[in-house]
Predict the 3D structure of the following.
Amino acid sequence: MALSQTQYQEIMDSYARIRHANQMEHQRRKEEIYDAVPEIRMIDEKIAHISISAAKYQLFHPDTDGRPSLRSEIYELSMEKVNLLAVHHYPTDYLDDIYDCPAVRTPAMWVLKNVTAFSSIFWIFFMTSPISGN
């Protein structure tokens, strides 16, 4: 059984609403942490500055492997951020991206994420529609 364009669009809209809600919650958490632990904002700003520097370096030195010291510095800052979260009694993954599907935890799995989320939404749509007979 093929989906109609309307059914497909309803599913994709549902998926977009979930993704948007998760992004809004992530932003709310970030603002909460920046208010509670200002050092984390400073760390994020340093990481952004270092990342821009690394990108510029790579543009002007395309034959090199980037600047390993920058990657090391970003890693150290990230670990400092995790430690600050723990010290202030927040879960260490509090600022990580939020996914409803527990199978998805890394950007490399975005295809699986879309398939799993799509399947879940499709199943809910199917079970609540007149097609299912329920």
In short: The two ends are 17 Å apart (CA to CA). Residues 102 and 113 are 9 Å apart (CA to CA).
